């Protein structure tokens, strides 16, 4: 069967509509929410808007595709072990929607306008649709496996930068301050002097969409979860870039330490991280 459509319903159309609706609602709640809870540390926040966005997304998707499975960040216990376990438990599903209802919650809480909605659909463990939506800039990035990636009808393509010295690169500081953060900091120390400049803007999914669109030439982060990367990874691959783990193994849903580039700087960035022992736990 054609994996992109059930009856007359396009998976991609549902993903786009859902991301747009969730994003609009999130934007309307910016600065207008009453509760911020800590998940497993003061670095790991959740608001009623994260939960509401996930509920809205899940309802819309499950209404269209009731036989599909759903994995969303706020439906999973906090912490890296639980998120790996939840993915494992969902891995039997033929169609699995992988959703981050707000990627960049810390930014959302502080009113820093850089966050996104990330929706991916995997078929037998492989991402076939990826949508990342930035409601502040109204930028919607869409990829379909084998069919390219687009932003508002225009094909996206990775940058042509061939060296780290000429590249703008991004990373992130994970909520896991004991395991992942020290490794990421070693990476920062190694990479920052080598690149044109480094950005840490606080949404892994949006950073990856920016690699796809050629606005960044590379992104890496240690300690991510499937929902941070699934949509962004397809965006980058369909835009001509490369996504692996930080040791160079091809991207799959279970990757936690991601290295995502335009392809040309992949090896150089990987080597810097390896030299600094910043590639994994
Ligand atoms: C976080 C963001 C952030 C990254 C963290 C993620 P959340 O996701 O992507 O940029 O540094 O590792 O956990 O919690 O805002 O969805
Ligand atoms: Ca979170
Ligand atoms: Ca996230
Ligand atoms: Ca989130």
Automatic annotation (TrEMBL):
It catalyses: a myo-inositol phosphate + H2O = myo-inositol + phosphate. CDD domains: IMPase. Its EC number is 3.1.3.25. The keyword Protein biosynthesis does not apply. It is an enzyme of class 3 (hydrolase). Transmembrane segments: none annotated. Its cofactor is Mg(2+). Keywords: Hydrolase, Magnesium, Metal-binding. Belongs to the inositol monophosphatase superfamily. This is Inositol-1-monophosphatase.
């Amino acid at each position: 069967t054609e994996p992109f459509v059930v009856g007359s319903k396009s998976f991609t159309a549902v993903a786009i509509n859902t991301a747009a609706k969730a994003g609009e609602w999130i934007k309307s709640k910016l600065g207008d929410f009453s509760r911020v809870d800590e998940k497993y540390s003061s670095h790991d926040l959740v608001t009623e808007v994260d939960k509401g966005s996930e509920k809205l997304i899940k309802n819309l998707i499950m209404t269209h595709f009731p036989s599909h499975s759903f994995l969303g960040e706020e439906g999973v216990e906090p912490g890296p072990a639980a998120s790996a376990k939840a993915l494992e438990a969902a891995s039997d599903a033929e169609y699995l929607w992988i959703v981050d209802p707000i990627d960049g919650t810390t930014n959302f809480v502080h009113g820093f306008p850089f966050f996104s909605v990330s929706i991916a659909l995997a078929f037998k463990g492989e991402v076939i649709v990826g949508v990342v939506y930035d409601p502040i800039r109204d930028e919607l990035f869409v990829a379909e496996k084998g069919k390219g990636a687009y932003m508002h009808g225009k094909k996206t393509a990775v940058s042509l930068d061939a060296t780290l010295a000429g590249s703008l690169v991004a990373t992130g500081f994970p909520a896991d301050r004991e395991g992942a953060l020290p490794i990421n900091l070693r990476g920062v120390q190694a990479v920052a002097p080598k690149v044109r400049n480094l950005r840490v803007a606080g949404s892994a999914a949006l950073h990856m969409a920016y690699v796809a669109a050629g606005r960044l030439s590379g992104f890496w982060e240690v300690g991510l979860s499937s929902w941070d990367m699934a949509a962004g990874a397809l965006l980058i691959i369909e835009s001509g870039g490369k996504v692996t783990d930080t040791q160079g193994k091809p991207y799959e849903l279970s990757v936690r330490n991601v290295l995502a580039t335009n392809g040309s700087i992949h090896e150089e960035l990987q080597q810097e991280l390896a030299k600094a022992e910043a590639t994994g736990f």
